[in-house]
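Quick sanity check, Helix-turn-helix domain protein:
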Amino acid sequence: MTAIEVFGDSLDPDVGLARSLVRADRDFLESLIKIRCNHGLSQTEVAELMGVSPSAVSRIESGMRDLRQSTLRRYAFAVGAEVDHVTRGFDRDKWEKRMAGSRALPSAASLWRSEWSEEPDAVVASAKAKAKASV
């Protein structure tokens, strides 16, 4: 199934919701990597704390896998992160009003590719750069 089949037209509020959810997942993962870097932990050290292989931690940080919450909790515990979940309703009317006057957005397929197009190493490097900048 293609992203367009899943998400439909890019002006559709469902695409806005999908985009928001993907962005939230990515931001969450980047924040965990940043905390790991700030604490001076290597992937190998996190793996030992989690009881998994270093390659498993690399796969977690790549963002390319759909992780279980229990795995993310173990990773967060290993890096010393406290996690708060925030949930709110998606305002479809607000989205539609905002999009009413805009030009066409990128297609859902290009959105899906762009949200996860970075290589795993680039995601880690980005998180490390953000960690250094905040020190």
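Posting the structure with no commentary besides this: The radius of gyration is 17 Å.
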